[in-house]
Amino acid sequence: MSLQGIEVEGVIIKEYPAKEGVSNRTGNPWKSQEFVIQTRDQYPRSCLFRVFGADRIEQFNIHQGDNVRVWLDINARAWQDRYFNDVSVFRVDHIDANEASETGSAPASATTPGTAAPESGKDPLGAAADDTDDLPF
Hints:
This protein is mainly beta.
């Protein structure tokens, strides 16, 4: 399985300010910017990704509200005996609103082959009704 070339289509829901600096190793200036894309699936998913390099930021021209198709490269980096995922983009296609609605996922049927719909009134994940979990997810 390759983690390069993962294609995600959706709308940019968050555009973070660009960050700039100078590399300690090479002394060269750098620039990066992060964005959040949300899919148009029945159950939308979000992904934070990074564009590295002033030339790519300008070339991709991504802004909040844009309908885009992005190709992602995922890599884990070690820092102080822990690993952190780095999701960067290497290709971006802007999609017009008509194409986005045509290629967006249509609402799924009530059940898919091999699955049954949950009984009415029951939580499909089996969570207790008095669950007081403070986690935001």
